[in-house]
Design brief:
By secondary structure, this protein is an alpha+beta fold. It folds into two domains: about 190 residues, no CATH class; about 240 residues, no CATH class. Helices cover about 40% and strands about 20% of the residues. The chain contains 18 helices and 16 strands. The longest helix is centred in the middle third of the chain and has 43 residues. The chain is globular, with a radius of gyration of 29 Å.
Length: about 500
């Protein structure tokens, strides 16, 4: 029986083009990005994640729309003055359902003695509960057909000391491992990093002092232990699903080729005869390339975290400055070999014609592939792709001097000629101590593809306009915005209708 196609999730590529697998990028302005800055860490550790900016002491009669809203408010208040809360008893009736909620201090009540395990030296765990009577009780009522919750009892009398901010943040209720950090922890754990080194690496990456992460080593250890079995099971499951869905995608390509004589596709297989890379182009895309193929954009922004595949999309630009879909590829990796195959296949689909100019992201493997397969084509890197990576590359090492560096870089981009650029570059990297920096070296090695003084004479049509970039970005986001089956990428009508709406 064929397996149901798996919902697919796309994220922006985060692997840095410098070649160091431990290095990842945070795109400026991308809210889904993975790394957080020191200021964001300090915000996380010094204030509640509650939406309430100003929190006052709760009072009897205070009204909330929902019990969850009341819990968040009370939790924010507790965080502010030095304790945490937990949910205690709830009461329900047949007519109203749950009509009472009790929230209490985390030290409320007393620990009930447990039956000791049949071991020689059972471990004694000291309980934090001391009978604290601080509490907030909620009661539900219906007023003019609208359900609301009001505070029926409240006490802020504690029989224990309240904690300072640097202590209260370590309470379990406030120690959170965000999704981005979870992904990073799992990656490092699979690479063989021990937990203590994972914590140290995260502190270095985020630029915070030891012990200032919003979670502790114990949380990381528990998270890794809980995920280990799940990860192993998921890896096996995803491998099977990826193979099955790619085979189904290939069969769909064959069916399309039978219905559309102009439809072209190709794939490669690994040593186990499993589908490795897949590319396709529609008949009208080949026709469009004959009209709008002088300038091609090869976008490799998104990667599937479900399948581990890189999505590459080829665009042209029409007479109105709008993006024209030319072809798509799915690649197993971001190597020069994979990009070489993608470019070879695309040129073959387009009947051997090379574009005058190709625009891409900054990537050494892709740069080498273009130089090999399109030797007479001008290679240009979008300036936006360069500028969006500067903060990830230099803000931590330069600290308070980053803004000065950014201003110097912008001045560098206004250099009138190559000699002026070279002179300003030497002054910039020397001034900020970036001569040995690998990211500065990467930028310099690719300078002929992004510096305006180098690419000024290249034909770019209107690809540098905001309108064109918006049409490309809108197309990609509509495809990857939600969990979609990988098969959707192949739906000619869906892709074309999305592009026409941009």
């Amino acid at each position: 029986m064929a397996l149901k196609p798996l919902n697919n999730i796309w994220i922006r590529r985060q692997q840095c083009p410098c070649g160091d697998w431990k290095c990842y990028i945070r795109v400026e302005g991308d809210e889904s990005s993975f790394q957080v800055t020191k200021n964001e860490i300090e915000t996380t550790t010094s204030s509640s994640s509650s939406p309430y900016d100003t929190v006052f002491m709760p009072y009897v009669g205070q009204i909330f729309r929902t019990d969850d809203e009341a819990f968040e408010y009370y939790s924010a208040f507790a965080r502010k003055i030095g304790f945490s809360i937990r949910k205690a008893r709830s009461t329900e009736s047949q007519n109203l359902g749950v009509y009472r909620r009790d929230f209490v201090c985390y030290r409320s009540g007393f620990n009930q003695p447990r039956k000791k395990a049949n071991v020689e030296h059972p471990r004694e765990r000291k309980s934090v509960r001391c009978g604290c009577d601080a509490k907030l009780y909620l009661t539900k009522e219906i007023v003019e057909g609208v359900t609301q919750w009001y505070v029926s009892q409240f006490s802020n009398v504690h029989n224990h000391e309240l904690l300072e901010d640097d202590q209260v943040r370590l309470l379990p209720a406030y120690r959170k491992i965000q999704q981005a950090d979870q992904e990073r922890i799992l990656l490092l754990s699979k690479a063989g990093f021990p937990v203590n080194r994972i914590v140290k690496l995260l502190e270095l990456e985020k630029g915070v002092q030891a012990g200032q992460l919003p979670f502790i080593e114990k949380d990381v250890r528990n998270f890794v232990r809980a995920c280990k079995k799940t990860v192993q099971e998921n890896d096996a499951f995803l491998t099977e699903k990826r193979e099955t869905d790619l085979l189904e995608l290939l069969e769909s390509c064959k069916a399309l080729a039978e219905r559309d004589m102009g439809f072209a596709y190709d794939c490669t297989s690994d040593e186990n005869q499993k589908v490795e890379n897949l590319a396709w182009a529609y008949g009208d895309s080949v026709q469009a390339y004959s009209l709008f193929g002088d300038v091609v954009v090869f976008d490799t922004t998104y990667r599937s975290i479900t399948y581990g595949l890189l999505l590459g999309v080829f665009f042209g630009i029409d007479n109105n400055g709008k993006a024209v879909l030319l072809g798509c590829v799915l690649l197993q990796d971001e190597s020069c070999r994979a990009f070489t195959w993608a470019l070879q296949t695309f040129v073959r689909f387009m009947r051997g014609r090379h574009p005058q100019t190709i625009l891409t992201d900054i990537d050494t493997g892709l740069k080498d592939a273009i130089a090999r397969e399109l030797p007479n084509t001008n290679h240009v890197v979008f300036m936006w792709h360069v500028v969006s990576k500067l903060a990830s590359w230099f803000s931590q090492s330069l600290g308070s001097h980053y803004d000065e560096f950014r201003a110097g870089f912008e001045m560098l981009c206004r250099a009138g000629n190559v000699d002026e650029f070279e002179q300003q570059w030497d002054l910039l990297v020397t001034r900020f101590g970036l001569v040995p920096d690998r990211h500065a070296a990467l930028l310099y090695s690719c300078r002929a593809t992004w510096s305006p003084c180098y690419i000024r004479e290249h034909f770019l049509a209107h690809t540098m306009t905001a309108e064109f970039n918006l049409s490309v970005d809108s197309f990609l986001k509509r495809i990857v915005s939600g969990p979609t089956c990988i098969q959707v990428l192949l739906e000619e009508r869906a892709c074309r209708s999305v592009l026409l709406q941009v």
